[in-house]
């Protein structure tokens, strides 16, 4: 019995050391996260310069973020502010409908969420209220839009060049 215990202890030690080294601890290099799928452009320093130079005004920059079965619209930020300061919002469409207000089923490009990752100039205001999105388990600020102007259909990543979009789960969060 004692020999079995010693053998199992040795096997456990060997497996543990293998697990630790295979997780990046012993490979000699730093862990490199997988590349994102929203595009590597622009370079972060170029993005920062673009945001610093963008027009200011009484509006928001919005990035549509569609995840199946959720009800949030996407991220909004003030002009000149980085995306890390943006807020994930629910839209109150009592004044203006969102651009992709279409049925949830239908052909690609003609259904709700077709504008995933499009960048807009959004006018309107926060209502001062929060609402619960049960499918994302999030209490989010409510924004009442009065207008949308499409700026870019392929703006690239939002928070980092490593951003990874999955239409079935929330993967994009301000860091």
What do you see in this structure?
The chain is an alpha+beta fold. The protein folds into two domains: 1-32; 44-152, no CATH class. 19% of the residues lie in helices and 25% in strands. The chain contains two helices and five strands, in the order H-H-E-E-E-E-E. It has helices at 2-25, 44-53; strands spanning 60-64, 74-77, 87-91, 119-133, 138-152. It has a five-stranded mixed β-barrel with strand order 1-2-3-5-4. A hairpin with a 4-residue loop joins strand 4 and strand 5 (138-152). Residues 4-28 have low confidence and may be disordered.
Compute the separation of the termini in Å.
Answer: 52 Å
Please tally the helical runs, counting DSSP H or I stretches of 4 or more residues: 2
Q: Give the oligomeric state of the chains in this entry, treating copies of one chain as homo and distinct chains as hetero.
A: single chain
Give average pLDDT, whole number: 83
Widest beta sheet: strand line-up? 1-2-3-5-4
The biggest beta sheet reads: 5 strands, mixed, barrel
Output the radius of gyration: 22 Å
Number of domains: 2
Q: What fraction, in percent, of the residue positions are helical?
A: 10-25%
Q: Using DSSP, what is the number of strands?
A: 5
Q: What structural category do the secondary elements indicate?
A: alpha+beta
What is the succession of H and E elements?
A: HHEEEEE
Shape: globular
Give the uncertain stretches in residue-range form: 4-28
């Amino acid at each position: 019995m004692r020999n079995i215990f010693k053998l199992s202890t040795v096997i456990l030690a060997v497996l543990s050391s293998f697990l630790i080294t295979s997780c990046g601890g012993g490979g000699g290099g730093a862990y490199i996260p997988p590349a994102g799928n929203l595009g590597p452009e622009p370079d972060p320093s170029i993005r920062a310069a673009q945001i610093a130079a963008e027009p200011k005004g009484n509006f928001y920059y919005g990035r549509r973020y569609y995840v199946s079965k959720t009800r949030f619209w996407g991220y909004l930020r003030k002009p000149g502010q980085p995306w890390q300061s943006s807020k994930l919002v629910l839209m109150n469409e009592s004044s203006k409908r969102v651009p992709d207000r279409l049925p949830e089923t239908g052909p690609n490009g003609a259904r709700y969420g077709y504008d995933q990752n499009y960048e807009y100039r959004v006018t309107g205001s926060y209502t001062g209220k929060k609402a619960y999105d049960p499918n994302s388990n999030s209490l989010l600020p409510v924004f009442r839009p009065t207008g949308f102007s499409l700026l870019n259909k392929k703006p690239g990543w939002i928070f980092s060049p490593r951003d990874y979009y999955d239409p079935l789960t929330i993967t994009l969060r301000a860091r």
